[in-house]
């Protein structure tokens, strides 16, 4: 499995973490079995195969198979469109799977497979394992290849005659593949936020600039929402 | 950094009040006189005459009915459905640090599943000498570890990035719980399987349809991560991962995989959906941070707050709240009643515990005037909880996750409170 430069950078960051950031467990909890106790049993190959379904960015874990855009569209319309829209544009509050290109640096960016996701492997893996919502793990590998091909097409990333397979999978590069950096708070924030704080006469004046009551979207005592979100301020705080 | 407040006696209250320039209404520090005898005292009440419930009445009890408002609540418009959604701990009504499991928040991606102990299997595979399958009973035979830790959703306070939106600490800060866990160190289980030298990460996933797979660096996995089967003394609640979940001290709640079914040792992160599409933090320039695991120092005043108005009028007032940090123990919490112009160091109920919630109190003498109430946590690394403005200056408003900015409650003269932002 190849390591991306990003991962290498992250491992360097982890290795350079100061000792102060390491956990100090109480002495009583530091002891743990370093030698096997002989508990559990060997996992059989069939069992590992049944559960170890994850696919890595370089395609490791992909089963043999293939699917084309047209087949994917058929399956998608049957299994997915009721929530995600005929063109993967998303219905109601359900996630959009396409669109949003060029919006990541704007207010309320639209993060979709095409505009945001760094790897196609995640699409295949997640759809195969966790979709359709409420009826997961019904898709065969070939069906998953076909749906993934259709999602590429819906995002303008493949022609309508495209066939996706485990052979050509690793050739696909997603538009936002370079759009991620490992957590950089240690450099960009911790020094800034570790100065001794002001205790007295810290400001000349204070004014209220925003009221939650103006929005009035907090559930009342009955637990009902009293309004709709202005735009989508919750973002994906809990949505999928 | 705990201390006895100067205002712990009536004389102290007066001194503190005077020192702060507080002009109290006449009689504010004196107990109110009762005009007529109180019938609750002078007349024999039913509960003092008739019998109460027998010990066979309640094999496993719920809170008394008068506490019916101390419940989890959800915000329907936040998500497309309630199956992949969030609810909120009633932190405004709780005190101390331990969250009762029955009202501790839930976050599911495909609902809370029912998984019986006999049906439970935990697999370890990947870059190990011996791929293994454990039963639930196997887990209980390993040496145990105990610890109190907060589990905070990465999206806690996420609705507040663009400004004050939800009115109550339950809704702004309630995606958190703090429990005492018992379980097995993950490194103990990994030792059983024998991690190969090329193993650098573990990929963990749940038994539910969403799977919630996440990648964790081996260093963390071998440090303080545990597979927990008890919380606050009893088995995990169904909605918290029964019969076993991952506990990842100090790190974002999404990594605390529930209904844990598989641990795969890998040489690189899987970059699953929950660490690419979600739980990545978009900065103002459109670039997104990935693997922002640690939850930084944070605090909130839980009372008074929008759900907890001051009803007793001017005079002694307990200002209380919670503070926590994923990078160690809380060492100090400062409280401001004037919107951050001046700060007073609050009293920690107990010394801070690393990666656990800490309770703070400020015994205040309220003069009946408006307050802009804030709290500011400091952890043992010296990190000071930033303002929302300071965070936005670095990140913009599109991060969704990891909003640990200082919260402001506007306390009005009538004692009611509102979530506001200030200059």
UniProtKB/TrEMBL annotation, chain A:
<dbReference type="InterPro" id="IPR051459">
    <property type="entry name" value="Cytochrome_c-type_DH"/>
</dbReference>
<dbReference type="GO" id="GO:0020037">
    <property type="term" value="F:heme binding"/>
</dbReference>
<keyword id="KW-0408">Iron</keyword>
<dbReference type="InterPro" id="IPR009056">
    <property type="entry name" value="Cyt_c-like_dom"/>
</dbReference>
<keyword id="KW-0349">Heme</keyword>
<dbReference type="Pfam" id="PF00034">
    <property type="entry name" value="Cytochrom_C"/>
</dbReference>
<feature type="signal peptide">
    <location>
        <begin position="1"/>
        <end position="21"/>
    </location>
</feature>
<feature type="region of interest" description="Disordered">
    <location>
        <begin position="221"/>
        <end position="240"/>
    </location>
</feature>
<dbReference type="GO" id="GO:0046872">
    <property type="term" value="F:metal ion binding"/>
</dbReference>
<keyword id="KW-0479">Metal-binding</keyword>
<keyword id="KW-0732">Signal</keyword>
<dbReference type="GO" id="GO:0009055">
    <property type="term" value="F:electron transfer activity"/>
</dbReference>
<protein>
    <submittedName>
        <fullName>Cytochrome c</fullName>
    </submittedName>
</protein>
<feature type="domain" description="Cytochrome c">
    <location>
        <begin position="67"/>
        <end position="155"/>
    </location>
</feature>
<feature type="compositionally biased region" description="Low complexity">
    <location>
        <begin position="224"/>
        <end position="240"/>
    </location>
</feature>
<dbReference type="InterPro" id="IPR036909">
    <property type="entry name" value="Cyt_c-like_dom_sf"/>
</dbReference>
TrEMBL record, chain B:
<keyword id="KW-0500">Molybdenum</keyword>
<keyword id="KW-0732">Signal</keyword>
<dbReference type="InterPro" id="IPR006311">
    <property type="entry name" value="TAT_signal"/>
</dbReference>
<feature type="domain" description="Moybdenum cofactor oxidoreductase dimerisation">
    <location>
        <begin position="290"/>
        <end position="407"/>
    </location>
</feature>
<dbReference type="InterPro" id="IPR008335">
    <property type="entry name" value="Mopterin_OxRdtase_euk"/>
</dbReference>
<dbReference type="GO" id="GO:0008482">
    <property type="term" value="F:sulfite oxidase activity"/>
</dbReference>
<dbReference type="Pfam" id="PF00174">
    <property type="entry name" value="Oxidored_molyb"/>
</dbReference>
<keyword id="KW-0560">Oxidoreductase</keyword>
<dbReference type="Pfam" id="PF03404">
    <property type="entry name" value="Mo-co_dimer"/>
</dbReference>
<keyword id="KW-0479">Metal-binding</keyword>
<dbReference type="GO" id="GO:0020037">
    <property type="term" value="F:heme binding"/>
</dbReference>
<feature type="signal peptide">
    <location>
        <begin position="1"/>
        <end position="35"/>
    </location>
</feature>
<dbReference type="GO" id="GO:0043546">
    <property type="term" value="F:molybdopterin cofactor binding"/>
</dbReference>
<feature type="domain" description="Oxidoreductase molybdopterin-binding">
    <location>
        <begin position="116"/>
        <end position="271"/>
    </location>
</feature>
<dbReference type="InterPro" id="IPR005066">
    <property type="entry name" value="MoCF_OxRdtse_dimer"/>
</dbReference>
<protein>
    <submittedName>
        <fullName>Molybdopterin-binding protein</fullName>
    </submittedName>
</protein>
<dbReference type="GO" id="GO:0006790">
    <property type="term" value="P:sulfur compound metabolic process"/>
</dbReference>
<dbReference type="InterPro" id="IPR014756">
    <property type="entry name" value="Ig_E-set"/>
</dbReference>
<dbReference type="GO" id="GO:0030151">
    <property type="term" value="F:molybdenum ion binding"/>
</dbReference>
<dbReference type="InterPro" id="IPR030835">
    <property type="entry name" value="Sulfite_DH_SoxC"/>
</dbReference>
<dbReference type="InterPro" id="IPR036374">
    <property type="entry name" value="OxRdtase_Mopterin-bd_sf"/>
</dbReference>
<dbReference type="InterPro" id="IPR000572">
    <property type="entry name" value="OxRdtase_Mopterin-bd_dom"/>
</dbReference>
């Amino acid at each position: 499995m190849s390591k991306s430069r990003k991962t290498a950078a992250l491992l360097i960051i982890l290795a350079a973490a100061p000792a102060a950031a390491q956990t100090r467990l109480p002495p009583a909890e530091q002891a743990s079995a370093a030698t096997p106790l002989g508990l559990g049993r060997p996992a059989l190959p069939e069992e590992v195969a049944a559960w170890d379904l994850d696919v890595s960015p370089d395609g490791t874990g992909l089963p043999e198979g293939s699917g084309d855009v047209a087949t994917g569209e058929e399956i998608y319309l049957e299994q997915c469109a009721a929530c995600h829209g005929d063109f993967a544009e998303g219905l109601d509050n359900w996630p959009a799977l396409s669109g949003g290109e060029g919006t990541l640096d704007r207010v309320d960016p639209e993060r979709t497979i095409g505009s945001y996701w760094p790897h196609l492997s995640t699409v295949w893996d997640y759809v195969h394992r966790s979709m359709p919502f409420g009826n997961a793990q019904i898709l065969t590998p070939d069906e998953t290849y076909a749906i993934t091909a259709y999602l590429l097409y819906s995002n303008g990333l493949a022609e309508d005659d495209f066939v996706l397979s485990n052979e050509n999978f690793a050739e696909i590069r997603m538009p936002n593949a370079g759009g991620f950096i490992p957590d950089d708070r240690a450099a960009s924030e911790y020094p800034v936020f570790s100065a001794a704080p002001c205790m007295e006469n810290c400001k000349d004046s204070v004014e209220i600039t925003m009221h939650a009551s103006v929005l009035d979207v907090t559930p009342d005592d009955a637990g009902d929402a009293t309004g709709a979100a202005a735009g989508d301020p919750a973002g994906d705080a809990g949505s999928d | 950094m705990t201390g006895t407040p100067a205002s712990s006696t009536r004389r102290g209250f007066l001194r503190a009040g005077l020192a702060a320039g507080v002009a109290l209404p006449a009689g504010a520090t004196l107990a109110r006189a009762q005009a007529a005898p109180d019938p609750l005292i002078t007349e024999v009440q039913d509960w003092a005459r008739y019998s109460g419930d027998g010990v066979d009445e309640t094999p496993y009890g719920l809170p008394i009915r008068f506490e019916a408002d101390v419940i989890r609540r959800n915000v329907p418009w936040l998500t497309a459905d309630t199956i992949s959604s969030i609810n909120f701990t009633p932190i405004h009504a709780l005190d101390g640090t331990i969250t009762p499991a029955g009202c501790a928040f839930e976050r599911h991606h495909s609902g809370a599943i029912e998984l019986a102990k006999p049906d439970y299997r935990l697999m370890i595979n990947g870059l190990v000498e011996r791929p293994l399958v454990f039963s639930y009973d196997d887990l209980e035979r390993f040496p145990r570890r105990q610890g109190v830790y907060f589990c905070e959703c990465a999206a806690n306070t996420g609705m507040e990035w663009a400004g004050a939106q939800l009115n109550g600490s339950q809704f702004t800060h309630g995606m958190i719980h703090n429990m005492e866990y018992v379980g097995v160190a993950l490194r103990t289980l990994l030792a059983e399987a024998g991690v190969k030298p090329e193993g650098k990460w573990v990929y963990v996933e749940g038994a539910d349809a969403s799977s919630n797979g996440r990648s964790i660096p081996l260093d963390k996995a071998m440090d303080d991560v545990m597979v927990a089967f008890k919380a606050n003394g009893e088995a995990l609640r169904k909605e918290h991962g029964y019969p076993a979940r991952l506990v990842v001290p100090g790190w974002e709640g999404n990594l605390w995989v529930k209904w844990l079914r598989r641990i795969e040792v890998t040489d690189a992160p899987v970059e699953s959906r929950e660490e690419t599409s979600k739980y990545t933090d978009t900065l103002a320039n459109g670039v997104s941070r990935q693997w922002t695991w640690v939850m930084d120092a944070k605090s909130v005043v839980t009372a008074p707050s929008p759900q907890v108005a001051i009803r007793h009028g001017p005079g002694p007032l307990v200002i209380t709240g919670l503070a926590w940090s994923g990078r160690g123990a809380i060492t100090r919490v400062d409280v401001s009643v004037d919107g951050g112009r001046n700060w007073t160091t609050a009293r920690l109920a107990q010394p801070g515990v690393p990666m656990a919630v800490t309770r703070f109190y400020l015994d205040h003498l309220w003069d009946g005037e408006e307050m802009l109430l804030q709290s500011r946590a400091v952890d043992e690394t010296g990190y000071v909880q930033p303002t929302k403005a300071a965070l936005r200056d670095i990140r913009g408003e599109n991060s969704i996750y990891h909003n640990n900015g200082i919260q402001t409650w506007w306390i009005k003269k009538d004692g009611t409170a509102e979530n506001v932002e200030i200059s």
